[in-house]
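re: ur question from yesterday

yeah so i grabbed the chain u mentioned. its 693 aa long if i counted rite. heres the sequnce exactly as i have it in my notes:
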Amino acid sequence: MKLVIVESPTKAKTISSFLSDKNITVLSSFGHVRDLPKSKLGIDVENNFEPQYVIPTKARKIVTQLKKAAQKADTIILATDEDREGEAIAWHIAQVLGSPEKKPKKSTTKKEGAKKEKPPTTLATKRIVFHEITKEAIEEALLHPRFLDMHLVDAQQARRVLDRLVGYTLSPFLWKKIVKGLSAGRVQSVALRLIVERERQVAAFVPQEYWSVEGIFNGPKKSSFEASLFSINGATLAQDGITTATDAERVAQEIRTASAHVTSATTKQTKRSPLAPFITSTLQQEAFKRLRFSSKQTMRVAQGLYERGLITYMRTDSFSVSAQSVNMARSWVKKNKDASYLPPSARVFSKKTKGAQEAHEAIRPTNPLLEPTTLVQKNEATFNDSREEKLYDLIWRRFIASQMQNAIFSSSTLDVVSEAENTYVLRASGSMLVFDGFLSIWHSSITQKEVPVLEKGDALTVDTITPSQHFTQPPPRYNDASLIKILEEYGIGRPSTYAPIISVILDRNYVARNEQKRFEPTEIGLKVNDLLVEHFPSIVDIGFTASMEKKLDDVSQGELEWQKIISDFYGPFKKTVDEKYETVEKQKPEEETTDEKCEKCGKPMMIKFSRYGKFLACSGFPECKNAKSLPGASGGSFQTKTFGPCPTCKQGEIVRRRTKKGRFFYGCSRYPDCDFATWTQPKDEKSADALEE
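ran it thru and got these structure tokens back, copy pasting raw so excuse formatting
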């Protein structure tokens, strides 16, 4: 009998449906079967940083079941995901069930590190990988098993050990110097720093006044168009070129009284090419922009689609796709569109970033011929909810569009010269869609503006000239899409880590989403960030973190020994932490006595500080342990708002609060005297749980 082991029960069920061989059993490990212990560091820093893995309590029952099944099997086939995490899970399963079959590590001449190993005894344990869960892919993988890739395993171990050392060393320091219960993360702290720095840019921003001048001109054959001031005396006008109402009105008056004519008229065709199929980062960004999905939601929904065989693996940084899938996409275009929509040859996309795993595939539908509407109408696959349907639709359209013709626009520009005391040029620009091409599938917001066909020298009359006041805007706060984009640009994190990075800083209450779904640091987030930036600059340094990611990539390629990375980092890091314990003073939490009396003992209530932010507590502590949330305190830096009177007690105000896990809800300010609470924002506006999600 053959025993196939995967991570998830859904994946196991899907694979089982493809296998007709009754001698094959597919079981799930339900994720990791071993991990570092929670109760201690779990890393032997004196013995080459050897991890001390344990079987978590929640995994013991599963491990027992896997061991019993393995005893009856002739061959164990490890079919976990194809990335570093999946390879590590396969290795841990093999370690639990018996010695794994693994390929000797190659030695390296490029970098220090990889040791030569003797080939281990060959056992009946095999490793298979696949990009998609389809019958053909599974059967092909079973025909071509491979060794466990210990370089991938080592890269995952290095990340896990590195993060454990940082977290378990820095967190107690934060407890001692700020408040109990805080934690620090290697990559998450950099993301927090980006959000804090952007918040301070917003706070420090001083709006600057500037003015634009627009005019409406009439030309031959009753033509009329709008143009904006472009240059003065041959010098292109900067955005803040006119800064006062007086100057703007003077310019407008000169143009009103001067003659005008067309000095330049151009029309040309412009092309817009389709984007590459999705990779992890672009899927998360687009799902947020179009569907308002958080990064965590996107990956959760994509995981379900992958495990049921609808899309390829969703953690990837490669734009590569199989020739078969490209042919199927082109076949769909040929059948459902006319010939003008199909390029003469297939489009090929490549990712130039070093470390991109080109052997992997981009995210695409496993069967491009299955349209979203077809799946729903024929019930060929059941979407668990509308989110799965929407995300599949997005992935399908992006992939089909990637193999279609360019969209073509007709772009026109008119320059109008107005010669008075000064020479002013006003410009009118417009663009009209001539051929929709891939945009017929990949629906995108297109602003079309028609400019009349005029010739150089045509005389014009002035209809209206209007100066308009504007103010410069601060840089926008990060949202899921923009934060992932900047992390990717800096080389921080990898496909499997973007969503966890955001989830962790939200769960730790270091940041919160405001009404616009943008991240704002909480008070505790600001304190943690400032302490780390001042005393541990390398930990939150963007360049240092990116270089560490590069080293982990080198480990995965067999070019660097993982223990060397840890050794080079940990020595100086531990020394710095030990020194800071002695030199950094404890930040005393801000406490303030209020006029409110404790309903239990009558003593004044005080505003105190915890890892969840400010709260109300009795000044009689520890004799009286009465404590409650501070009305309106949500942890964020945005202002407290009220949403009308409480419908239950009629005395308090409805305020927005946040649970310990980060979800927003609305409740009475008189809690606990009044326990009114709801997820839905009053006045029938957008629900609070929708804001959180």
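noticed a couple things. The chain has six domains: 2-148, 159-205+476-583, 209-273+411-471, 280-401, 589-630, 633-693. also The two ends are 45 Å apart (CA to CA).
anyway ttyl
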